[in-house]
């Protein structure tokens, strides 16, 4: 599969701060590519370099075969960009705003009218097309941001943390919208929200302190890591998980990490053999009632914490 985004040695310094450290990356055409990292890892710096909003200290990047890091504006028509904190003219309606964006991309009057209506329908804003943008919710703002990014039919979308400021309902709407674009455009999607990346991305890259740690297809990544996690689901009749039980688990040398919800516990082990011998007897010795006891592969969150430790 050919790539639509390519970075070679892409580096950015801000004074003494090395924000991006010789990034080499290829993004397959038509994929939903998750660019995952903690806050400050270098995700937004990468996005700004690809969008031509900053110049690299070293290295180059290409968008749809056109160099994006040499100051040439030719690549700008090949991508749509949604920054982390998009700004709009709040006195405009979505239809007026998208018409304005279409003029910036030099779309003809007929094409502009057609595309505005198409993208309004695509992002679910047709019924709100005459409302002022200033009254929109966060989710509606993000849908409008994706609409403007799609307007000129780019083959690539660069989306910087598109769900980070949204409530669960808004996140669900945006993720479903992005999933529906699969195969039509290449989506390069940065996030620190692991559940979002795990849900929709085909390929995942993890960046940490400006350095690329890994790039793999999602399923390959999840399957590559050993089954080192025990899932315990406790009987709800016994009440919430006891803090004393959790502390007892964390005290074992073969336990790496314990994550608890109201009635379930995930135990990540550093020594699987020791855990398989000792975990269940410990649970039984605590007098707890188990509805489920299962060894499972780690979640993307657990892999991320391990890789970016």
Structure description:
The protein is α/β, with parallel strands linked by helices. It folds into 2 domains: 3-217, 3-Layer(aba) Sandwich (Rossmann fold), CATH 3.40.50.300; 226-308, Alpha-L RNA-binding motif (Alpha-Beta Plaits), CATH 3.30.70.1560. The chain has 10 helices and 14 strands. The strands form 3 sheets. Strands 6-7-8-3-9-10 form a 6-stranded mixed sheet, sandwiched between helices. A 4-stranded antiparallel sheet has the order 2-1-4-5, covered by helices on one side.
Number of E-type strands? 14
CATH class of the largest domain: Alpha Beta
**What composes the largest sheet?**
6 strands, mixed
Sum up the overall morphology in one term. Answer: globular
Q: Could you tell me how far the N terminus lies from the C terminus, measured between alpha carbons in angstroms?
A: 32 Å
CATH superfamily of the largest domain: P-loop containing nucleotide triphosphate hydrolases
CATH architecture of the largest domain, please?
3-Layer(aba) Sandwich
Low-confidence stretches: none
Enter the CATH topology name of the largest domain.
Rossmann fold
Q: Which class do the helix and strand fractions yield?
A: alpha/beta
Strand content: 25-35%
Number of helices: 10
Number of domains: 2
Helix content: 25-40%
Order of SSEs: EEEHEEEHHHEHEHEEHEHEEHEH
Strand line-up in the sheet with most strands: 6-7-8-3-9-10
Rounded mean pLDDT score = 91
Radius of gyration: 23 Å
